[in-house]
Amino acid sequence: MKELLLRNVRPFGGALTDILIRDGRIARIGKAEASTAEVEDGGGAIAIPGLVEAHAHLDKSLWGMGWHVHQAGPALEDKISTERRLRRELNIDPARQSARQVALAASHGTTAIRSHVDVDTDQKLWCFDGVAATRERFRDVMDIEIVAFPQSGLMIRPGTLELMDEALANGADVVGGLDPCGIDRDPKGQLDAIFGLAQKHGKPVDIHLHEADDLGAFSMEMIIERTRALGMQGKVTVSHAFCLGMTDRARAAALTEHLAHQDIAIATTAPASRPVPLAAELRRAGVRLCAGSDGIRDTWGPYGNLDMLERALFIGLRNNFRNDADVEYALHICTQGGADVMEIADYGLREGAFADIVLLDAETVPEAVAARPKRKLVLKRGKPVARDGQALFTVE
Amino acid sequence: MKELLLRNVRPFGGALTDILIRDGRIARIGKAEASTAEVEDGGGAIAIPGLVEAHAHLDKSLWGMGWHVHQAGPALEDKISTERRLRRELNIDPARQSARQVALAASHGTTAIRSHVDVDTDQKLWCFDGVAATRERFRDVMDIEIVAFPQSGLMIRPGTLELMDEALANGADVVGGLDPCGIDRDPKGQLDAIFGLAQKHGKPVDIHLHEADDLGAFSMEMIIERTRALGMQGKVTVSHAFCLGMTDRARAAALTEHLAHQDIAIATTAPASRPVPLAAELRRAGVRLCAGSDGIRDTWGPYGNLDMLERALFIGLRNNFRNDADVEYALHICTQGGADVMEIADYGLREGAFADIVLLDAETVPEAVAARPKRKLVLKRGKPVARDGQALFTVE
ipTM of this model? Predict the structure, then answer.
């Protein structure tokens, strides 16, 4: 029976207390008696549950590979084909790069990641196998969910469906999809295929939907129809969902209502340069929202660092959240919101939950979001995995 | 004759070289001979010219005053009146708070600041006097330009014009303005008054324009008309200029052309939640663009840190800049762009210019923007003012 006592911490910035951890779970929250447990003194730090990265691409980053000069063309298809070519040319090894990203994410206090992983007829299962190896290797450090993701299209690249089927049989957790109109030019074909795989394997669905305005709304309706017909309420996520930022707010509101009824979640990166789903409107309608970093430092672009506390800031800035309660909601999206979408059992800062805990030196939660201090201590199931902004384990 | 030799630095991420500094200016860029100068080894760091904060509110921040719980109402007028009330209640002393912000800005590599400073019939010149004292006190550390800014309105608060006149007589550098329709309800009255002050004192103008769409375009036209009529080309800046983000792109393009003809500059914060002037369009049209942090950690909102390298990132994210050349332009806006608007003589990384230099550990300029490393060394006219992210001087 292994015990750790976190002394002098303030859950969500509240009153000073102690957290007793036993066998990887929170045994008690409250001022502790004298104890034989190992002690970590939080020094008054804020405690929050582990950050949840609900939309990453662990197979993609060039992190640690030197600077990549970006000069790809402007179209989505340019970036997809540039990446497919550069993967092999630059040897962007999915096992190595996903391991590096696990260390980076842990250093920032993330304890769970949903990662889309490319499946296509060029790479076949190379990306899946690499990230699956990382998932196994870092099982004690990070919960990783793998989405089998047809980045290069499903209907336009015959053979992809069979590869996705194989990935799901081999342990992929979620069925991915991508712009059924914009990329695949066959929305019925792609969505029937994706939802078919979900039914066959009993897995949830997470679809990238960049399509804007009426086109995106049309695809969204088709996703809603299939969710309803198949009774998949609570099992479907739409990532990006830019169409919800459409200027026709009445149409966006109607779509949002349908999403709420089918309990379809939205994953956002809160990009500054695109129309986006408005967090306050989704919240009012009862639609669950989670967030992620998307690809970081990859052939698509130069930005990103897998810091979900910074992502909470970006959500706050994008949604013009200024009041404390709103900024706290931005962090909620990056913690509980992601945990709900990943269906992480026993998540949260409460007795009985897994001790996935982040300590932050700040006065209040909104200050932590605004200032993004180095993570003072990160625990995964009660075990320190990062301290003072550095992961406590190394990867090559 | 004081000499400092910066060894092993890479100007803008280029080839390794040395920079010899003499009497506060860059005497030579090139591999140095043996020298009797004091030496700083850059260790291969990138060298860029000092960052320029072209839109700040040094009289406003609550930095260092403990967390302020935000719960102001949503309207602009709510925030203005909340602030006027809290200034005295919380004792937001402009001298103290501007000094703290100078140290913060210097720690991030900023060497020049244009600050709007509230002038109104409640505060009178309290804010101006405080920031002017800070300008004098930190003369060797930071170039500070003061904009006499009628935050609470000019026409709707009689007496304000006389106070602005007094501030300009006492050393304010720039005539400010604010939403001549939205706040003052008298665009002709306000703009005639502002441009009149500018003519009287021979000073440039910098007008906050939050007004959107056609309303903002109307106010912008009136600013353009006065700039042309008074021959003030190159002397007028419009801050925010949200109307340039209007959906009627043809109208925005026509306005932009007029701005270019009158050489009116735009100052942006690249906010994620508002339509904004598009950096690429302004650049193509030949309109000068500078950037700033706006108010930080004040009664208006919880965000901000005066880090202009982070602001370059925000510009990149807001404008969807992905290619290296574009990200370099984002940094240009936060360096040379601001220096041009502030008409800083002898600015830049070239022989003869003042030695306002920032060293950054990064491989390339775009990587520095994406990663925002702690500033390794900051020189103001050849003198170290910050190192490893910490200012080398203290303020109370």
Answer: 0.95
